[in-house]
Write a structure and sequence with these properties.
- By secondary structure, the protein is mainly alpha-helical.
- The chain has one domain.
- About 75% of the residues lie in helices and about 0% in strands.
- The protein is built from 3 helices and no strands.
- α1 runs antiparallel to α2.
- The longest helix has about 30 residues.
- The N and C termini lie far apart (about 85 Å).
């Protein structure tokens, strides 16, 4: 019976991947900081502006997460569209729900 020795080979860090990861991390941190700034500085009278800005910034953050961390940004266009188009319907549904919820709330009060 032969003895097998296992060797662990340490590869050098891929600096381009680390740089890309840090770039995306800083983009996400900046967008989150903008969201916090809007949440604490924009008055409640501008409710619709805040909602639209929050949804838009959330979509931008979701794009970066899906594109870089889930590696969808490096796929073919047909696979990207199979994910992006249903997401557009979900965003449309969110707008409809916000609009209807506001109408129901106004009807009650």
């Amino acid at each position: 019976m032969e003895q097998q020795t296992s060797q662990v080979e340490v590869k050098p860090v891929n600096k381009a991947k680390v740089k890309n990861f840090l770039k995306v991390m800083w983009y996400l941190a900046a967008i989150t900081a903008i969201e916090f700034a809007i949440a604490f500085t924009v008055p409640h009278e501008h409710k619709w502006v805040r909602i639209i800005v929050f949804i838009a910034l959330t979509i931008v953050k979701a794009y970066y997460i899906v594109s870089e961390f889930m590696h969808l940004g490096h796929e073919k266009k047909s696979l990207k569209m199979s994910i992006v188009l249903p997401m557009l319907f979900v965003v449309f549904l969110i707008f409809i729900m916000i609009y209807q919820g506001d109408a129901i709330l106004k009807a009650l009060y």
